Amino acid sequence: MPKKISIFINNKKYSAEIGQSVLDIAKQNNIDITTLCHHPDIKVQGSCRLCLVEIKGKKGLHTSCNTQVEDGMKILTDSKNISRAKQINLELIFSEHCEECGDCIYSQDCTIKEFAKKYDVKITKYEDRKKGYPVHKFGPALEFDTSKCIDCGLCVDVCKKEGVDFLEYKKKGKFYEVCPSSKKDKDCIYCGQCLTHCPVGAFEGVGEFEDVDKYIDVKGKTVVFQFAPSIRSSIGEEFGMPVGTVVTGKLIAAIKALGIEHVFDVCVGADMTTMEEATELIERLEDDKPLPMFTSCCPAWVKYLEFYRPDLIPNLTTVRSPQVIMGGIIKTYWAKQMNIKPKDIIVVGIMPCVAKKYEIERKQNYLNGMKAVDQILTTRELAHLLRKKKIDLASIKPDNAKSPLLKPSGAGVIYGSSGGVMESALRAAYKKMTGKRMPKLNLKEVRGIQGFKKAKIKIAGKTLKVGVVNGIANAKKLLKELEKDPKAYDYVEVMACFGGCIGGGGQPVPINDEIRQKRSAALYNLDTKKVARSADENPIIKKMYKDFFNDDKNRHSVCHTSFRKKKKEVFPKK
Amino acid sequence: MQKNTRLATRQENIIAKLKQADLRGRGGANFPTHSKWQMFADVDADKKYIVANGSEGEPNVLKDGYILKNHPEVLVEGLKIALETFKSSEAFIFLRRDYFKKYKKKLEKLIGDLPITVFREHGGYLSGEETVLCEEIEKNLPARPRTKPPYPGQVGINGLPTLINNIETFYYVAKISKNEYKKTRLYSITGKTFYKGVFELPVAWSIKKILTATKALPEFDYFVQVGGGASGDILLASETTQQVSGSGAIIIYDKEQTDPWVLMRTWIDFFMNENCDKCTPCREGSYRILEMVRDRQFDKKVLDDLFFVLENTSYCALGKSIPLPFKSAIKKLLAHTRN
Ligand SMILES: Cc1cc2nc3c(=O)[nH]c(=O)nc-3n(C[C@H](O)[C@H](O)[C@H](O)COP(=O)(O)O)c2cc1C
Ligand code: SF4
Ligand code: SF4
Ligand code: SF4
Ligand code: SF4
Ligand code: FES
Prior knowledge:
heterodimer, A: Ubiquitin-like (UB roll), 3 domains, binds iron/sulfur cluster, binds FE2/S2 (inorganic) cluster
């Protein structure tokens, strides 16, 4: 038990525990302290020097984020000196941040601008030091504008925490700069965690926000939108709704208000992924093919394996990710129904993810020579587009359209959370192997935002050993376990983002565990309300298997992909 | 049990001697060595580290190099005493790269099979800061300072208690243990004098007395920078009745012939090059000072602001120490020049 002590903040007594920081206690008690380089996901940086306090008996000013509490400590969070120092340090922070507010991911809610107002900061006191600094391009997924970087260090540490460690400090002239690695054996996997953890918008998705209306109105083309599982419980935040609000109907209405007639739910694609993946799992278990089988619906994880561990490519399921399958269904099955030429359809995917911008470019994901999905807009980008067109998601009347390609099973919805793919596939595999619905549908063991989950699941007399991880660092731990015991797992789900796609690189900022928890809980809640809880119970899936995927050629071209060893593709720009 | 008692007595003995001799750390901060050793002895751990800090990264400080060249056996002797004093301990001699190249072989010969590793520093001036030193030994590069507390004496290399003393401090530990300490320290004299070098003279002497004794006292109007060649204070000839602070350096300047702006430029270039750019005031503040020094003009209000945040909000002692030489140079040197 940690020792309980008392501290005083602004003359009021608070209880604390040895090992906590002054900032921890202030936050617990809703005492406002200015922080910029502090992120609950990441270890304390102490670099911005804004979270200043005075401590009785200790000279000078102290940063609350890296000052440990001591019994009887007397702290002031406001004084002339504190305000003065914050003002000066903010002026210095602005001196290295070339503002580009119009298309910044924080255009709605910018922390430093808010501070500037509060502390009467002259933003332009110094000439911009980083004018003309390079923009590094990370494949088709992200851009890093170093002229906006304020050197807080969070992205470097989040990439380390992710388990990739691709961002480093490099000395250029007089200064250390954050820089993508030039090492041959290191590459970015496009997860976008750096983006969602940067407090000043130095990272953005490719095209964010310049390209948002590129495909809204294209002559002679049918533009359709599809949205990923996790969007429904996150995009509300962009419109001031409480975290975890489910807005499926409003989302459909808002997209239609853009003039888009046809909207699809990627969860239906997820149901298809589930069916195929369950089949492949059973085959692998029976036919002595490489085990464990790894999920492959996270393109960042796929890139990790293709670049860092190509030896494990045979373990990846060849089933395409839900959005790619859904794009395929639209351009084949639906196109035929509607009597539209596939090449006249433009599919825009609304995704929680910047790696998906890369996934749609992969040749292995093409369909009859064309892209299955033509453009990805992240959750943030769609919100930006809606705002630009003056469409308010919060007040729009929900559209409860019930077309079959908007009706997933509950299993398709939980794909957005870490553990969701596993749970869905196991529900379907159970049905396939036993002919019965899984008696205990809620697989609590694989749920939750913690990084590493394990379970043993009994199906038809077999015990399946499954592992569910989020964050590549956890995947690496699991691979280590497999080195020791190759039979440690039969089936493994990996999502690169912490908590799964609900915490993806395309999602609204800020992000933290509480937000992840709420976004995730909302999806599981939706699942329990569905009649069809398993992909195999979804009428449209049954129908497509009967009418369209009975042809193996169709099934293969829409639902399966391949992988190849990769060379480094992201280099620092000079 | 008996062994432990003997260890305890040996520990008490040497710490009492250090206390009696009133040895202060020679790494710059003047911290009482016996207190540091006592606190280190009181920490309970299965394993401990000891480091002799030979980073000596500040300009014009030469004394650790002097010991390595002339009395390396005394340094090793000092470390041996520390190893015997603290059970289950292992030591490093942490050397700047040129010292490493020059003295590694010689040291290793003297070390024999004592558990002492000669370690090559990776960075520069900042690497001599004790937490950066720990990071370097752990190979977390480029190394940046850690938050204190915890101090290395509690949590240092690999999370274990780590005693860090300057090379000169260990040199005098050996002397004290053999009752050969005569309350001296090593002064590095450089600058505009014919009599440059490292001199072992009483701690209590004034700057003037030291300069006189070493024949380095100038006949021209001079000023000195004392402590170190970047962070040291500026003292006019009339102020040399003081003792030397910091790392014991005295740098002599011709007052007429020295352009204070050029001098300040060397300091700010040094700080900008050697800092780690982790924290806002030191990274950006030093750059804005450089701009003003380059333009040979201070905006007093801006400079005041920058000094304020450097002193009060820098993450580590490097940033905190930047204003001091500038403040004294501005007061004592600039007031009398044309600009
Ligand atoms: C920027 C910076 C550079 C330092 N460089 C050195 C150094 O080169 N050698 C050294 O012994 N101590 C250096 N120190 C001080 C060390 O952190 C530490 O206090 C010292 O090694 C303790 O030894 P002592 O108690 O024997 O003085 C430096 C401190 C700072 C802030
Ligand atoms: S996208 Fe992911 S892997 Fe790439 S730099 Fe950012 S955090 Fe690292
Ligand atoms: S890019 Fe953003 S997160 Fe990374 S160091 Fe710069 S400001 Fe911080
Ligand atoms: S976890 Fe989801 S959001 Fe993150 S990279 Fe993978 S697919 Fe994209
Ligand atoms: S004060 Fe300077 S050297 Fe110290 S942490 Fe800050 S930037 Fe680095
Ligand atoms: S939040 Fe504490 S230093 Fe940045």
